[in-house]
Structure formats: C-alpha cells, structure tokens
C-alpha cells in the first residue's frame, strides 16, 4: 500500500481563499478585520514566522498590526500593550508570538488577552470552553488538523483516534476536537505502555511529540490516516533537513493517507489563524460565523 498524500499546502490556500471572500463581505459592510501580532526580542525563527503572518493577513484583505518589542521589555510594559489592544475596536485578533524571553510570565501574558480576541486559543477561558464543548476560540494547529481530517474522511464519528503527545498547544486540544466529532480518543505519550500497540489500533493517528521520525510504519494500522504535526530540523548526509515526528517513508507504505513534512499541517496553522481572526470579527459584530472555518 502507498498512502495518499494529504496536501496541506493546497488545502491551506483554499482556506485562505474562503477567508478572503469572508473578509470582502465584511469590508462591503464597512468592517475590516484586524490582527495584531506582538513579537518580543530578536528570535530569527519567530521573526520569519511573524513576517509570513503579516504578509498573509494583508493578502486576505485584513489589517495587520505588528508590535515589535525589545527583549528587555518589562512584564508591565507588555501587559500595558495588551490592554491597549484589548480596548482597540480595530483589533479583532491578538497573538503574542511564543516563546517569550525567560523573565516574562507566559501564562500571565496569554491570560491578559481578551478571550474573544485570543485567536491562538490559549487563554484559560477558551481552554475551558473547548473542554466543555462550548463555543470558543480553537488553537490553530489542532483546528487545521481537524479540517484536513474532515476533508479526507468526511464523518469522523466512531473512529478510533490516537493522539501521541499531551501538550496544551496541540495534544490536549486535538483530543477535545476529536471527541467533539464523536471519535473514540486515546491520548498517548512518552510513558504510555506498549505505545506501538496503542498506535496500531488507531484509524486516525496524530503525532505531536516533538521527536524526529519516532513513529515508524510498524506503529501504523493498515489504511489509517496519519497526521504528522512535528517539525524537526535534523542533519542527514551533512545537510540540514526538515522532518516530522513520523518516519514518512515507512509509514506511507502502511497508511491509507498521510501528511508530509513540510507541506502538510504547517501551512494550515497560519490559514487557521486568519480563519480565527475572521470568526472573532464576525462574533464581535454580531454577524453569522463563516461556514466551514470553525470547529
């Protein structure tokens, strides 16, 4: 068996196109969604990511507000900026780029964001709303994974899903979303006994452990759908290479469908950030939410 490739790059382009259409409809009503991104420090990877977010925000017709702060900024100064953005009616989404410098308290910063503008879905209120099946802002990467799964499989009801990884950013919210679509969900992790056997029972296998190529073909049930969330830089044959948490070559021989790295889940994250900003703007203005762009 050779797995079908789930093209996240193409699907993300489709999502951005739908977002752009939704934004155009709001602009016609005199409303322009706005996304504010806060970058603290000079981390090169974060700088590249923020530039990409800003570019795509403008491309779909939204306003982009970038705030770049020195790495030495105080907690109080950062919280004052967030309070200013919370109060700004032109800003519908606020994202603070993580990680933050060590002297700043990430949890306090995240929870200072207005939950209605928390387009990352990390605020404790949104975490609680998602866990209890209520309307919330949903973390972008798990939302992107869910969209890819629905597009590939249609109705997910009754399928066995295994999420390998228990982070607050991906593993836990991914499990909540799959439960919301009536999957039977197992969260596995580094201390799971017989991890291979647990994974082999999965119709849907989501790998989000941050360990390069840990999930090999013998972890995969024949015909399963494999979603690889991992992005790891490794050196191979003297060259830097980007790989996932799944050993693609061996898993693709067993799976029914699989996301590649790069070009799978990664592009969906920014597309869903834009979708969340559109959703937040619609909610703020009492307008219907965009179809197919939420959980």
TrEMBL record:
Name of protein: Bifunctional protein FolD
Reaction(s) catalysed by this chain's protein: (6R)-5,10-methylene-5,6,7,8-tetrahydrofolate + NADP(+) = (6R)-5,10-methenyltetrahydrofolate + NADPH; (6R)-5,10-methenyltetrahydrofolate + H2O = (6R)-10-formyltetrahydrofolate + H(+)
Residues annotated for NADP(+) binding in this entry: 165-167, 231
Domain Tetrahydrofolate dehydrogenase/cyclohydrolase NAD(P)-binding: from-to ranges: 139-283
Keywords, in A-Z order: Amino-acid biosynthesis, Histidine biosynthesis, Hydrolase, Methionine biosynthesis, Multifunctional enzyme, NADP, One-carbon metabolism, Oxidoreductase, Purine biosynthesis
Oligomeric and partner information: Homodimer.
Domain Tetrahydrofolate dehydrogenase/cyclohydrolase catalytic: 6-120
Organism, as annotated: Falsigemmobacter intermedius
EC identifiers of the protein: 1.5.1.5, 3.5.4.9
């Amino acid at each position: 068996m050779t797995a079908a490739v789930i093209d996240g790059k193409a699907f993300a382009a489709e999502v951005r196109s739908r977002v752009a259409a939704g934004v155009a409809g709001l602009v016609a009503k005199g409303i322009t969604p706005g996304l504010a991104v806060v970058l603290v420090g000079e981390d090169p990877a974060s700088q590249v990511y923020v530039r990409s977010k800003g570019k795509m925000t403008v491309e779909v017709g939204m306003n982009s507000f970038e705030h770049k702060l020195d790495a030495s900024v105080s907690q109080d100064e950062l919280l004052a900026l967030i309070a200013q953005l919370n109060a700004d009616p032109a800003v519908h989404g606020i994202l603070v780029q993580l990680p933050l410098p060590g002297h700043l308290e990430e949890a306090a910063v995240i929870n200072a964001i207005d939950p209605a503008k928390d387009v990352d879905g990390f605020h404790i209120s949104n975490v609680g709303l998602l866990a209890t099946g209520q309307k919330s802002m949903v973390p972008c990467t798990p939302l992107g994974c869910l969209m890819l799964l629905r597009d590939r499989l249609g109705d997910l009801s009754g399928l066995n899903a295994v999420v390998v990884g228990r982070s607050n950013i991906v593993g836990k919210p991914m499990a909540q979303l799959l439960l919301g679509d009536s999957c039977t969900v197992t969260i596995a992790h580094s201390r799971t006994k017989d991890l291979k056997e647990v994974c082999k029972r999965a119709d849907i296998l989501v790998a989000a452990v941050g360990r390069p190529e840990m999930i090999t073909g013998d972890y995969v049930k024949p015909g399963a759908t494999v979603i690889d969330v991992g992005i790891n830089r490794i050196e191979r044959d003297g060259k830097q290479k980007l790989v996932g948490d799944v050993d693609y070559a061996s898993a693709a021989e067993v799976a029914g469908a699989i996301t590649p790295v790069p070009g799978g889940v990664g592009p969906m994250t920014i597309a869903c950030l834009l979708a969340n900003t559109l959703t937040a703007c619609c909610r703020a203005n009492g307008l219907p939410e965009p179809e197919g762009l939420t959980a």
